[in-house]
Predict the structure.
Amino acid sequence: AQSVTQPDIHITVSEGASLELRCNYSYGATPYLFWYVQSPGQGLQLLLKYFSGDTLVQGIKGFEAEFKRSQSSFNLRKPSVHWSDAAEYFCAVGEYGNKLVFGAGTILRVKS
Amino acid sequence: NAGVTQTPKFQVLKTGQSMTLQCAQDMNHEYMSWYRQDPGMGLRLIHYSVGAGITDQGEVPNGYNVSRSTTEDFPLRLLSAAPSQTSVYFCASSYSARSTISYEQYFGPGTRLTVT
């Protein structure tokens, strides 16, 4: 069965520091992988996606993620975090981007 | 374009009541789906539709019905509400259900449902 694990429930980083959010997946076929962000009380916004090609993908708001097939991972990174990045982040795997299976989410807090 | 719209934003039901959560999209998207979000569990797929007249079950379909009579609308019906259905419900849509090209799913703003 497909599954997504986000090992960190909460992460706190200082403004300006680098960020890495971890995501591990289990999927039988070639995975379509996504990172979404959710601000409090809002819907989900797509940050970036991977389904083929270059394993380092760039997204919006300065985020990037690297697909590592050997580790079944798709970690999200940002070199310098801004206070406005505080939100909940979800990793997801799915079929062509549909029928998504989500991780439990990681709540990011940013210290000023 | 309004994107994906959901009504109502908030709803309180008593156990055993029924209601319909509305979802509409104006992007002519083929694929639509419903998720529920519970703390610590991410989002879980309830039902989805690959086009008008075609629906299928997701991971957690029990207690919910859907229909898709038009491309634009995909209502979610709670037949007899239970406290376990207290959750935030999100509707989403994407351009294509059957392409090998990955299309983004667009999410609505959500409906917060409380069942007492």
User: Anything to note?
Assistant: The interface with chain A takes residues 4, 31, 33, 35, 40-45, 48, 58-59, 90, 92, 94, 96-105, 107-110 of chain B (CB under 8 Å).
